[in-house]
Amino acid sequence: MQITSTTFSSLTTRFCKGLHTSSKCRLNCRVSSSGASISVRRTIHASSPPQLMKRKEPSSVAQASATKRSRARLEVPDYHLSPSVRDEKTSDAIWPAPEAQMKQARDIILECARSQKRTIIVPDKDADGLSSGVILHRTLVLLGLNPELIRVHLLSKGQTIHHEHEREAMAALSPDYIFVLDQGSRKSGPLIAAPHTGLVIDHHHATPEDFPEGSAFCTANQSPPVVTSALLTYLLCEPLHAGVSDRTDWLCVVGTHGDLGTTLKWEDPFPDMSATLKKYTKKALNDVVSYVNAPRRTATYDVSSAFDALLSAEHPKDVLKHSRLLAARQEVNAEVERCTHTAPRFSQDGKVAVFKIKSEAQVHPVIATRWAGHLQSKALEIVMVANEGYLPGKVNFSCRVPRCAKARDPSVDIIQSLKAYASLKPVKDEDDDNDGGLPDQHEIPLLERLGDDFARGHVQASGGIVDVDQFEELMRLMRVGEKKEKKQGASPQKGKKPIDAGQSNKLTSYFGKKSA
């Protein structure tokens, strides 16, 4: 850049700006021969010592500071303080799940151990699901079930237990008992066609009918504060054998922190895990969460390495020595960093921030969680990260409630919000051909065409898997990227000051960073 005399004068003026007027100073200025650099030195006379000057903040800056302080004071109620549902007759808290469901689940676990028959455990792929699977595995062995009779079935990438080939794979193991852990649930036929005893242990959003035909279920989703599947499995198994607590307490913490976060307070009604946290250290247990979650997020989807590491570990540090988990963690961290800098687009109502990424790794939930902790807006209710590269022809998306909306009343329900958007009628352009109308398939509301993999999970942490064209249709219904229509008769806004062209610290520079 060529520095002119005018530019130089401006720079020196800005350099001196803010000095106390009584200070006597001399500027020694030098411009290089190329005119491409500038050096400025200020000499202050000893007779006139510099004085600190307190400048009054402009009203706009003061207001912004007050807003920032107000946001900093935003406090989300501790999770364990969520009010419990109480029994109408006894007034006792229905926690962690209805008592009848818990009794039936324990009976099935004891019956399975006594039967000495073939058993398969079908845990979900994350820290919560895998931990609950290992807790149940160790409990059954402690109760006397021959370990050779236990098989673990891990689902393929992007699949659920409701996909036909997964049920065929389970049936091929000829199980007499099937335990499905942390998989979410929906109304469906039997887990397999052959006679069997099935038990679903879960905490995802579901109605009393949303379970496989013929299977028993124990779910925490209607008993706040809702526990994770690992904690529910631990609370089911702990009374069944004296050795369960000693062998699985740290797994309970790992699974719970995996879903509810590492800052969770283990206070009533949650069990006291202070001794476990002290024995193994909170840092080590939280590191295990990160290690165990990593393989299922990689493009290779190496979930078995994570489950094997947990099952064979006698101490959390054994998991942290696993070289494959460490490599997976590094791979995922690099991919998260690559994809995080995508710029968001907003729905017209301002309630949803949408980030689109393309990755073969399952990093969309991580990025959604990260942005949910940073984005702030009075209107914002949902942070959505859509991954167009995880499965061919599909969009896998994860949604989280931003921290700024956590304490709102009524609380944000992502599942209902997504369904509401998908139920909207498309907005037609004025020049649409009224005679031709829409194609037949678009006359049916999008919600009815999306299938069972849309808006699954929890009310504050949901997502789905949909076809690419269906996702783009959802974006149009949400009017993502469209500006909010101005109200008729509204007074014109005052002109805003232009941003200093010399400012280098901009959002655009952040989102452009590493976006390739």
Automatic annotation (TrEMBL):
Q: Which InterPro entries match?
A: DDH_dom, DHH_sf, SSDNA_exonuclease_RecJ
Cited Gene3D superfamilies: 3.90.1640.30
Residues annotated as region Disordered?
Answer: 45-69, 481-516
Database matches in Pfam families: DHH
**The organism sits in which domain of life?**
Eukaryota
Please report the stretch or stretches of sequence annotated as the DDH domain: 119-237
What is the name attached to this protein's record?
DHH family protein
- Species lineage, top-down? Eukaryota, Fungi, Dikarya, Ascomycota, Pezizomycotina
